[in-house]
Amino acid sequence: MYRRRVLPGFGLSLGYTLAYLGLIVLLPLAALALKASGLGLSQLLQLLSSPRTLAALRLSFGGALIAAVFNVLVGLLVAWVMVRYRFPGRRLLDALIDLPFALPTAVAGIALTAIYAPNGWLGQWLVPLGIQIAYTPLGVLLAMAFVGFPFVVRTVQPVLEAMDRDVEEAAASLGATRLQTFTRVILPMLMPALLTGFALALARAVGEYGSVIFIAGNIPMRSEIAPLLIVEKIEQEYAGAAALGVVMLCFSFVLLIVIAQLQRWSGRWAERST
Amino acid sequence: MRTTAHVSRPVSWQRRALHVLLILAVVCFMSVFLLLPLAVVFVEGLRGGIAAFIDTIGQREALASMRLTLLVAAIAVPLNLIFGVAAAWAMTRFQFRGKALLGAFIDLPFSVSPVISGLLYVLLFGAQGWFGPWLEQHGVRIIFAVPSLVLVTIFITLPFVARELIPLMQAQGSEEEEAARVLGATGWQMFFRVTLPNIRWALMYGVLLCNARAMGEFGAVSVVSGHIRGLTTTMPLEIEMLYNGYNEYDHIGAFAVASLLALLALLTLAVKTLLEWRYSDQIAPHTPGGH
Amino acid sequence: MTLLLSHLSRHFTDAAALDDVSLAIAPGEFLALLGSSGSGKTTLLRILAGLDYPQSGSVTRGGHDLLSMNARERKVGLVFQHYALFRHLTVTENIAFGLRVRPRHARPSRTEITDRVEKLLKRVQLEGYGGRYPAQLSGGQRQRVALARALAVEPDLLLLDEPFGALDAQVRIALRRWLRNLHEELGLTTVFVTHDQEEALELADRVAVMNRGRIEQVGSPEAIYQQPATPFVCEFIGKVNKFELQREQDRMICGALDFGADLWAKRYDRAVAYIRPEHLALATDTGWKARLRHIYLAGSVAHLELALDTSEQLIEVDVASEDLLRLGLQQGAELYVQARTATVFPLANDTGEAKSEDRRVLRPHQQPY
């Protein structure tokens, strides 16, 4: 078949892309896949079934879930205020939302610890009230919420901005109260963005390491997260680390697929270009 | 008239009170949740005074960690820049089978925990890894040495540039490049005179984020570094070493180094915001990327 | 219940959108608000809908103050220019929305809602489309869904904002007729906003022509077209030839053209005359001498562009295509033009402002061709 491409560079760009991706991403992934498949299912389960590992997994997944829910609630509020209201300093705050993306995790980790440790900036007031955050699971949640904070805001914001005021006016002229307009019109339209933000924040929090380990205290069975356990296991034997790694990676993949589906789902309402 | 026509009906005081309340809640929350950590870094870093700050920053290990961080970023960022442009060109200018899959693989590093990224490379090059024994025989060190730091950083920051460029180049279409070809431009002429000027701000945006992440990465490099002070510790690792040190002087040192990285973060945010205001039409509408 | 708008004013920061507007809308009437963008017509509609509020003036319906009610309480059906359909809801759910958000005691039962939606779908000829999302419909279908949604709450007043603005020419004409029929069936007081004079004149019982926040004229389409009340209406509606007149002794003339005797007892020195192309007729020997410059044949009508001999002013004359053939006119031909009806506004001597209240309709040449 004789078919010329109009623009040049197909072979070069695709070849380079594939080679680079193969070396940097696929080869290491293959190493993990092979290591894990070498273990077999029973050994895999055995490696994962120690109480300490289970506790770490529970904290990582459960904590990430709670943090993501928190981020959905707070993120929606922040996005709403940023889009709908005008107040001095709004632009500055808006730029600040991305801070958790820009701030290196280790920096965030020691900063949060310095605030919430028993002798810290806020910790010294909170601990006497019986609220201990640093070196407890609560600290883990806080760090997870911090790193995942921008996701929901940044997915919801553009949707809210693009939302036509017409639609709200239509609801009002059809007799809906403000609350009904919010729950029946605005919220459903934001739902795909909220869920996408939730999934992204969840994925980020599950794998988070740097900002968590400083504030967590890393007490086994209590405030030790799964990524830290992987780091410790690498130093002993690869198999255990690989087993944990595979579980977490699979979770990431599932989330990736869920996010892609969500995006499709939100496209259901989108204008079809004809 | 629609644009200016918003409600002149007196908004009830309850409604207005609610607005003020919501704004206050958000401002307070963000101050404690985001601003406070930032402030803590600088205040703690400067606790010993300016002289002590400069002194800690000037320590041999601290300087070595800065050099290493710059070196790693200086290798990883340009490589990912070239990759990003090539990948975006292939993805947006041609139709081929498996394109969606390729896109998924480009995005993959964003969804992998940093620790797992490190683990992948340990499994590949570590003492018990695929290439470990062979490398050891030939006296090549990758894990617990600078090459592994560079490799995991490349892995972690791989999607940034490509992810900025793909949606933008998709939206721009290939008409201008086709016009250049019809007018007789060679491939490279077309690229440098048409494509590159069109994507430069998005490219800069991607490089900015890529660099911030490359310099700030902690989890992945922590796994492969081996923590040899002065040799394999980047700035974030140096922070950890200092922070876990036993005297208060080290503690201040940790925050001093951290404040440098925090400054970098602020600078990144400032440039990023500037780019978004100034060139919003030339930067792709983006979904938030992982860090 | 007559809808009474009195002395409505609404100022935006830069300009007045409504400037002392008063209007009475009779029950069952089909009223068009016609004007170009920025004329205030949309603002007026939004005030009726409760989406905007005037700084002064009042709106009452059957004596009840409408402005003290918010949008939800007004029983007004509004069809937005771009429809504002809820894209996350199906057609059925869109139409049922206004019923479902009612407080429980006023909400119809589930089956009642289903029934009503079915009836409305039938009415707007969208049976079988209930399960679709707005994105899956064509422009005309969306428009009808928006209409059905507005009708579902059984409003006392139906408001339509540029109802055909976003549609193709073909669909527009079909929908126009359909809407007119629907109005006749329902007898619902309807106000619609448009910038398209053809649409307004064809569809409405009465037309309010708006300009710069004021109502220039309200009247039947025929009155608007045949007896324009202000220079703006003359120029805005249809095509028109404009002549600037001077008083000489007791006659009004434009160059060598005589428009007849001064009708204002020498109170005004100048005036403007508007003559529609179809109110000019061709003659062979009497009238204004002119040369034929171009013929634009448009089906049954021919638009002739003529240059007046005395002033070189270009004028347009419409004749039936048949007559054109019969006369065998060619480009460059010399002929005479007679004006049958001219609408003349005197200009104030000091300000030069047109005095609409002293408008006269002149018949400069009594005998038609």
From TrEMBL, chain A:
Listed InterPro entries: CysT_permease, MetI-like, MetI-like_sf, Sulph_transpt2
Membrane-related topology note: Multi-pass membrane protein
Subcellular location: Cell membrane
Keyword Membrane set for record: yes
Segments traversing the membrane: 12-34, 54-83, 95-117, 129-153, 185-206, 238-262
SUPFAM superfamilies: MetI-like
UniProt keyword Transmembrane helix present: yes
Domain ABC transmembrane type-1 per the UniProt entry, residue ranges: 57-259
GO cellular component: plasma membrane
Keywords: Membrane, Sulfate transport, Transmembrane, Transmembrane helix, Transport
Subcellular location, principal: membrane
Molecular function per GO: ABC-type sulfate transporter activity
Subunit (UniProt): The complex is composed of two ATP-binding proteins (CysA), two transmembrane proteins (CysT and CysW) and a solute-binding protein (CysP).
Function summary: Part of the ABC transporter complex (TC 3.A.1.6.1) involved in sulfate/thiosulfate import. Part of the ABC transporter complex CysAWTP (TC 3.A.1.6.1) involved in sulfate/thiosulfate import. Probably responsible for the translocation of the substrate across the membrane.
Family the UniProt entry places it in: Belongs to the binding-protein-dependent transport system permease family. CysTW subfamily.
NCBIfam families: 3a0106s02, permease_CysT
Protein name: Sulfate transport system permease protein CysT
The organism's taxonomic lineage, starting at the top: Bacteria, Pseudomonadati, Pseudomonadota, Gammaproteobacteria, Lysobacterales
Gene field: cysT
TrEMBL record, chain B:
Protein keywords: Membrane, Sulfate transport, Transmembrane, Transmembrane helix, Transport
Predominant location: membrane
Gene3D superfamilies: MetI-like
Location relative to the cell: Cell membrane
A single Gene Ontology CC term: plasma membrane
Topology within the bilayer: Multi-pass membrane protein
Regions crossing the membrane: 20-43, 68-89, 101-122, 142-162, 251-271
Molecular function via GO: ABC-type sulfate transporter activity
Domain of life: Bacteria
Pfam family, one: BPD_transp_1
Domain annotation ABC transmembrane type-1: ranges: 66-273
NCBIfam families, A to Z: 3a0106s02, permease_CysW
Role noted for this protein: Part of the ABC transporter complex CysAWTP (TC 3.A.1.6.1) involved in sulfate/thiosulfate import. Probably responsible for the translocation of the substrate across the membrane.
Subunit structure: The complex is composed of two ATP-binding proteins (CysA), two transmembrane proteins (CysT and CysW) and a solute-binding protein (CysP).
Protein name: Sulfate ABC transporter permease subunit CysW
From TrEMBL, chain C:
Gene3D superfamilies xref list: P-loop containing nucleotide triphosphate hydrolases
Coiled-coil zones: none
Alphabetical keyword list: ATP-binding, Cell membrane, Hydrolase, Membrane, Nucleotide-binding, Sulfate transport, Translocase, Transport
Domain ABC transporter: 3-237
EC class: hydrolase
MF terms (GO), sorted A to Z: ABC-type sulfate transporter activity; ATP binding; ATP hydrolysis activity
Pfam family membership, one: TOBE_3
GO CC list: ATP-binding cassette (ABC) transporter complex
Protein name per its UniProtKB record: Sulfate ABC transporter ATP-binding protein
